[in-house]
């Protein structure tokens, strides 16, 4: 009897040891996803037709593999990944690579100089163009289908590029570039973007997150770093205009390439920056995408130099879907919204009225009572985890996840697998202003989503010990 127990225990130990000892590999790949000109661009409430390319838009994939476990993350230079495109891309990738659907995350970087290819605004401009020209002359290609296929292709290529790697992870620090964009005003309200040097500002209504999450990959053989995941909570809207651009992460990559090697891949994951932007209200000027990218790269390079190697990788993924009830509107409100949408680009109509009409129309387009908020947690080792969340998530929620995480380094990346608008905190819902008007889910779902992420991290933390 005793012998049998001892045998069983030693058998178990062997299994654990072999899983822990299995080689850890990673591969990256970059695929161009730039739409043709003059495809519509996203980011604002007016119709913007693209006129050229400042720099190409990319899907950047990373695949991890250890033993029989694989996972993939893709970062795409677009404002949001629609549920439809994310689902198709993940299905195609799962078929091509054998990586389970639930182990694949597709996140948008939130570039405001990318394509407008889904949602209520696209539907409105599409209808208008068809009415005028008999067809949509700005959508001569099936961009959503191409995008899904290209995302899947990026994962397939990254899998082909798998090689044994060593990981290092930790945080850089930068408190110079990001600002909470919601402010308490003298009249008792909270306002988003109240304008630079506005004398009625009392103070910011929320924090920033100065931590820059870093995961560096070094080829086990050569000892040379070849890629890094960099995550920072700062809204990508620093370029403007009508030319495609990957925004400041493009300049971050340029700087990292000139520092490390020409083919270095910087995979930028947007941190939870639903209420964070680059506007310093105490000054008049604004930093350009290039300035932000190169300043961020200074901090990133400094941080990369101080990273600690990650021992004993132990790849695992957990995910959960939180069915978030949507906000409800009367049939009168829905009809009024449809009417307001006809003048959604008209600056004479109050901004928040247009935003609310857009939100109600977006909900009508979805036609559901709950939005499935999918939360994924990727464990790379007992020291490093990545969380992905859908939507434009308020910074407090990301900070709460990081603070409760059992992993010393936790990257929290937003806008993954769906773009259901802003996910504010309960506090922000009480305060109001733009982001809450442009949110679809009921108050409280942000906190529930954070709790779900924390639960998954704790489960992964427990099973690593
Ligand atoms: Zn935005």
Task: Present the secondary structure layout.
Blueprint: H1 2-21, E1 24-32, E2 40-41, E3 48-49, E4 52-53, E5 58-66, E6 69-76, H2 83-97, E7 104-108, H3 119-133, H4 143-160, E8 163-173, E9 179-180, E10 182-185, E11 190-192, E12 201-204, E13 211-219, E14 225-232, E15 243-244, H5 248-259, E16 265-270, E17 276-277, H6 289-305, E18 308-310, E19 316-325, H7 331-341, H8 351-366, E20 370-381, E21 384-388, E22 392-393, H9 395-404, E23 409-413, E24 422-423, H10 426-431, H11 434-437, H12 445-464
Parallel strand pairs: 4-15, 6-7, 14-16, 21-23, 22-24
Antiparallel strand pairs: 1-5, 1-8, 2-3, 5-6, 8-13, 8-18, 9-17, 10-11, 10-12, 13-14, 19-20, 20-21
Helix pairs in contact: 2-4, 5-6, 7-8, 9-12
This protein binds zinc ion.
Zinc ion binds at residues 110, 112, 235, 237.
């Amino acid at each position: 009897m005793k012998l049998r127990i001892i045998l069983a225990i030693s058998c178990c130990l062997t299994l654990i040891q072999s899983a822990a000892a299995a080689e850890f590999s990673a591969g990256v790949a970059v695929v161009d996803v730039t739409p043709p000109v003059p495809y519509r661009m996203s980011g604002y409430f007016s119709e913007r037709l693209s006129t050229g390319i400042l720099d190409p838009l990319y899907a950047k994939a990373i695949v991890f593999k250890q033993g029989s476990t694989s996972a993939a993350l893709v970062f795409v230079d677009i404002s949001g990944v629609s549920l439809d495109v994310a689902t198709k891309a993940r299905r195609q990738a799962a078929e091509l690579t054998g990586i389970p659907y639930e182990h694949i995350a597709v996140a948008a970087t939130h570039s405001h100089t990318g394509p407008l290819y889904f949602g209520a605004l696209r539907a409105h401009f599409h209808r208008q163009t068809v009415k005028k020209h008999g067809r949509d002359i700005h959508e001569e290609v099936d961009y959503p289908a191409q995008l899904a296929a290209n995302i899947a292709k990026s994962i397939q290529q990254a899998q082909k590029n798998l090689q044994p790697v060593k990981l290092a992870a930790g945080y850089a620090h930068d408190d110079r570039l990001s600002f909470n964009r919601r402010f308490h005003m003298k009249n008792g309200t909270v306002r988003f973007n109240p304008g630079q040097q506005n004398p009625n500002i009392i103070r910011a209504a929320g924090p920033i997150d100065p931590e820059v999450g870093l995961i560096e990959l070094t080829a086990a053989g050569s000892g040379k770093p070849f890629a890094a995941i960099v995550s920072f909570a700062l809204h990508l809207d620093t370029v403007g205009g009508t030319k495609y651009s990957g925004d400041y992460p493009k300049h971050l990559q340029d700087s990292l390439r000139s520092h490390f090697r020409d083919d270095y891949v910087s995979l930028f994951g947007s941190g939870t920056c639903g209420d964070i932007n680059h506007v310093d209200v105490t000054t008049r000027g604004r930093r350009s995408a290039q300035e932000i990218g190169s300043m961020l790269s200074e901090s990133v390079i400094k941080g990369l130099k101080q990273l600690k190697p990650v021992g004993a990788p132990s790849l695992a993924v957990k995910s959960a879907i939180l069915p978030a009830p949507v906000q409800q509107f009367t049939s009168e409100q829905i009809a009024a919204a449809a009417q307001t949408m006809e003048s959604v680009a008209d600056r004479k109509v109050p901004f928040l009225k247009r935003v609310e009409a857009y939100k109600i129309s977006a909900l009508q387009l979805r036609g559901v009572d709950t939005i499935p908020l999918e939360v994924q947690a990727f464990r790379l080792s007992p020291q490093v985890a990545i969380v992905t969340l859908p939507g434009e998530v308020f910074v407090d929620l990301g900070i709460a996840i990081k603070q409760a995480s059992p992993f010393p380094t936790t990257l929290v990346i937003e806008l993954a697998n769906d773009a259901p608008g802003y996910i504010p905190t309960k506090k922000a819902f009480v305060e109001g202003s733009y982001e809450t008007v442009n949110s679809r889910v009921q108050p409280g779902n942000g906190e529930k989503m954070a709790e779900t992420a924390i639960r998954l991290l704790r489960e992964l933390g427990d099973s690593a010990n």
